[in-house]
C-alpha cells in the first residue's frame, strides 16, 4: 500500500508543473510571432513567472492537497525545485542578458543546493512522498479548524509565492545584467558554497541523531535528549545557518550588479527562519524527555552563529 501510494504521489509530483513548463516552451517557440499574448510574455518576464507560479503552484497544488484530504506535502518538495526552474526560466527568456561565466557558476551552485535539499528531504521522509506534512501546517490546521481548507491557500501557498519569488530575485538579476566578473563574485561563491556544506553536515548529523533515537526507542532504551555533537555543539541551528548563508551569498551576486535593494529577500527569509527557530525551540521545551535538557542547551549554546560553549553556571 505504501509503495502504491508512493508511486502515485511521485506521478503527481512529476506531472504537476507540466502546465507551466509546456506553456513556457510554447512561448519560447512562438515569441517572435506578432501576437499580443506572446508580446506580453516577452516584455514582462517577472510578471509571467509570478502568473505561472500563482496558477500552477498556488491554485493547482492547493487543489491537489484538498483532493488528498488537505495533505500539503508538495509545496515543501517544490520549495527545493522551483529555484532551479526559475533560474532556467530567466536564463532562457528572450529578454535575458548576462555574463556567461557568472550564469554558469550560479547555475552550478543552484543545482548543487537543490540536490542537497532534495536528498535531505527524501532521507528525512524515508524516501516516501506525501506520507506526512510539515508539523507547522498541522498546528495551523488545528488553529483554524473547519476554515483551514480555504485559509491554507493564503497561509501556505500565497505566502510561499511572496517569499520564494522574493528570495529568488537574484536569479533574475544575474540573468538581466551583463557586467564583467569581479572580486565580489568570488566572495559570493565562498558564502554560497559554505552555506551548502554547513547545511549538508548539519542535516547529516541530525539525521544520524534521529535514527539512533528511533532505534533506542524500539529497543525500549532511554533516548538521547539533545544533539550536542559536531556542528550542533557550537550552534543550536546550524542547518538554518547554512540555509541563510546560501541565500545571502546568492543575493551578493545580484548586489554586485548594482541592485542594492536585493538583500531584502534574504533578510525577510532570515526573519522567517528566526520565527521558525522560536517555534521549534518552544516545541523542544514542551517535550517531556528533553525539555529540561534543552533549556540547559539554550543557556550554553549559541542560537545560529557557531561559538564556543558557555559555562552552565553562568
Describe the structure.
The chain is mainly α and 314 residues long. It has 14 helices and no strands. The chain has helices spanning 2-15, 18-30, 36-43, 45-67, 74-78, 82-92, 100-124, 135-144, 148-167, 169-174, 183-218, 238-255, 263-286, 291-300. Helix 7 (100-124) packs parallel to helix 11 (183-218) and helix 13 packs across helix 14 (291-300). The longest helix has 36 residues, at 183-218. The radius of gyration is 21 Å and the shape is globular. The model has no long low-confidence stretch (mean pLDDT 93).
SS class: mainly alpha
User: What is the percentage of strand-forming residues?
Assistant: under 5%
Q: Tell me the distance between the termini.
A: 53 Å
Number of helices: 14
Major sheet attributes: none
Amount of helix? over 70%
Could you report the average pLDDT, rounded to the nearest whole number?
93
What is the CA-atom radius of gyration, in angstroms? 21 Å
List the helices and strands in order. HHHHHHHHHHHHHH
From the structure above, extract its key features.
mainly alpha, Steroid 5-alpha reductase C-terminal domain-containing protein, 314 residues, 14 helices, transmembrane helix, 71% helix
What's the quick description here?
The chain is mainly alpha-helical.
Record the SSE blueprint.
Blueprint: H1 2-15, H2 18-30, H3 36-43, H4 45-67, H5 74-78, H6 82-92, H7 100-124, H8 135-144, H9 148-167, H10 169-174, H11 183-218, H12 238-255, H13 263-286, H14 291-300
Helix pairs in contact: 4-9, 6-7, 7-11, 8-9, 9-13, 11-12, 12-13, 13-14
